[in-house]
Amino acid sequence: MQPIQFRVTCESSNTWARLGELKTPHGVIETPVFMPVGTQASVKAMSPRELVEVGAHIILSNTYHLYLRPGHELIDRAGGLHDFMGWNRSILTDSGGFQVFSLADLRKISEEGVAFRSHLDGSSHFISPEVSMEIQMALGADIAMAFDECAPYPADYSYTKESTELTSRWARRCQAAHTREDQALFGIVQGGMYTDLRRQSADDLVSLDFPGYGIGGLSVGEPKELMYDLLEVTVPHLPKDKPRYLMGVGSPDCLLEGVSRGIDMFDCVLPTRIARHGTVFTKNGPLTVRNAAYSEDFAPLDPGCDCYACQNFSRGYIRHLLRSNEILGVRLTTIHNLRFILRLMENIRRSIAQDTLPELRASFLEEYNQGHI
Amino acid sequence: MQPIQFRVTCESSNTWARLGELKTPHGVIETPVFMPVGTQASVKAMSPRELVEVGAHIILSNTYHLYLRPGHELIDRAGGLHDFMGWNRSILTDSGGFQVFSLADLRKISEEGVAFRSHLDGSSHFISPEVSMEIQMALGADIAMAFDECAPYPADYSYTKESTELTSRWARRCQAAHTREDQALFGIVQGGMYTDLRRQSADDLVSLDFPGYGIGGLSVGEPKELMYDLLEVTVPHLPKDKPRYLMGVGSPDCLLEGVSRGIDMFDCVLPTRIARHGTVFTKNGPLTVRNAAYSEDFAPLDPGCDCYACQNFSRGYIRHLLRSNEILGVRLTTIHNLRFILRLMENIRRSIAQDTLPELRASFLEEYNQGHI
Predict the structure, then answer these.
(1) A31 φ, ψ (degrees, to nearest 5)
(2) Does A53 reach chain B within 8 Å, measured CB to CB?
(3) Does the predicted TM-score (pTM) go above 0.95?
């Protein structure tokens, strides 16, 4: 018996979108789904009950950060990540690869794994596919991710080819090292910006028969159209009956385009990060409520929004809070941005059920791109 | 008809403590009561619904800060402070005096009022009793405070005498300038550390017949025993049928001692401020959960506490959050500290009703002062 079960419940007739149900040891998730990011075992500024309120059913947490602080062994002794952070819905942990590769000068890659220095204190560490599995099994998320190399952008063909092949070899080692039975392990498709490498990577991974597949190495600086093209090349090589997870993507337009190309899962720091800088999503596009223009604007952040921030507070008040460095300010913008994205996902799922996703995409993007008047 | 009504519902037989009911335009408050401080129109790290959850019925906000940012006129246009900050229970605003006098080199006092420079941008301002009333009427709290001079500690007799007399003259000007009918204006008793000046100030103020009285200029660095002695000198000069508010006091021991000496209202930044530095109240005294000693302590902050933090999270997790600069950390310590103080006030009120306040005071302080083992 697999730790997770996935079934497609409805398919779009005129896009590749599908509705699905993903069962984990911690609940049932309707897909397509967006996963808020809780890097250090906390979705920044949010409490678990607020995450439930905005409609989150699964969150992502970062293996690299938790390994360094407070340490996966401590979290294991606390009863695992769910108990440690007081979140009893589902969790996915990344492999630590992406963060380690982002360290640039601080890391060195070999066939065996990656040696790196901590961004916190400069101490030396080594993560291999086996170590990543050990850490993720200790954290005990519902879904773990294979340890991959995410090639930089841009990268030449030969570097990307070697990197993609390394990712395939590492995926096999991850699978061999992963033994936790209440946790699923997803493979990650790489291949950079090269269509043949994407196809090859997908075929390699699928031959290993993972219960789900991440698509990594996209949204790393390339034009969005290129990302969409690469999805169209990759997705047909993935099995229809397994969840497909586009890693690190979460702007409203990319969510709509990703779902239309058959993606089931997304994560991104964007909604929470821009919230902390005073920018909120609205149906008319992003609005920087920190700006002086909103000091006497007593309308909600996004009129019509059902979130706690919009139901109770004005742009003018939230602008005052942000400007005065009051914590409540970023709490309210974060609640709003997550609710905005999670409600968009609800609308996307409803439109797939009604087979009207292209209409939703067109009307949403028209209003969104028109901006504020 | 007065904007507020106060009635004593029960008196302690062996202390000066009493139970009361304070009705304002925004609700009924059981006294003795503690008021959390929301300096900049936000109780730091808390949302209004969390304030309701921890049991707050009235909060204090600071006139000086709101005058400078976002400005009382803006708050007036937003419909007043209650609407602006989304808090529909009671509010008390201070007069701005205490903050202005804390500016030290940046202010100059005259009979007319106080000239000062903003701590934010150095701009020049002038607050007089009349200006303080204008600002507080625009803010629209349920209770406004007279503009007083709070003498520094220590201060010699002649400085304190002049300052106290100035406060009495200013109180009269405040009363003349205050015209808002849905807002009560409290006088403030000063007199520094001198018993005769305390008595004189109380008599001066009482002759003006305010609907309530603040006791200011205490807890400014003097020994606690001296503060208790001065309360014993002052309180008998205040009318029995009006609320008595000990300003800026809120440590657990001072709350118990203040109530025992006939105080009905308190405010203090202490619970929220130490929370942000990682220290929490427990029945065994303060605990600095930020310390490494608590990294693997998976007990609640204060076992037996009914707050959201204690019901759902461990010391080890909260320590991790604080150390990682995660906002949720200070949110949880703040919720806990406010709930701890507000539950202490609930227990104090219950003990007055049962005429067992001395027993509560003895048993609470014995456990509290014993510290952690």
Answers:
(1) -115, 155
(2) no
(3) yes
